[in-house]
């Protein structure tokens, strides 16, 4: 009984650390909460996370969505909040909010920041954490052409990384039929 209580306490502590880290990366607490509510409403309006994935990235034949996680993508302009999709064929990220940029003809355009990495193009996935603050965990994805993508601020980091490793290993070591 003690083991079960300690195990549940540890899971709850990890979840609380994940929420704290996720909120810390946002600009302001009120803006983060507003963004999460807006994201939740958008997901409900579209019809669930599977449809969000399908709408933003399309689905290839035989592709199955394994895990969706809220997190941040590290960019040179700072962290961008969004959803990380892990499927049987790729890892994809779509920002929570649209981003403004200038088009070639000078007009301001708003689009969602998107990344799509085929699993067969991933060289490795690494876990990392801040030495001073171990609750700050990072996930690095390195592609075969040596681009790296850093994700952070997961609500459940271990689960997301576990699904990522599983998806990569299934592509790199397919089961023969």
TrEMBL record:
Pfam families: GRAM (PF02893). Residues 51-129 form the GRAM domain. Belongs to the GEM family. This is GRAM domain-containing protein. It comes from Vitis rotundifolia (Muscadine grape). The lineage of its organism: Eukaryota, Viridiplantae, Streptophyta, Embryophyta, Tracheophyta.
